[in-house]
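Exercise 7.
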Amino acid sequence: MGTIKQVIVVRRDLGMGTGKIAAQVGHACVLGAEYVRKSHREWYDTWAEFGQEKVVLKVSSLSELEDVKKHAMSLGLPWAEVTDAGHTQIEPGTVTCISIGPAPEDVIDKVTKNLKLL
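Solution. The predicted structure, written as tokens, is:
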């Protein structure tokens, strides 16, 4: 098995502050990891053993985020979506980011290779 990583893709069109983004990314990491721990235990175990690699990338709109999610789904990658509770900076139910993986890096890269780091 090759390298296993987790990628978080964050919307930058919402005007979230640094702390808000950090919290949303944290939610995505936990949601994604818990899902993979149950659905693809071998990926989770490898990821956990070798440092829990994470990469945070950005998109400029909900539409772009949806395209990334659909591409991940088409390749059978595990994903998780974060929607905000609306207690602070944005409206309740707003999709802020997604997690892809932990999953094989070579497959995730097919989805995220053209995205920029946050």
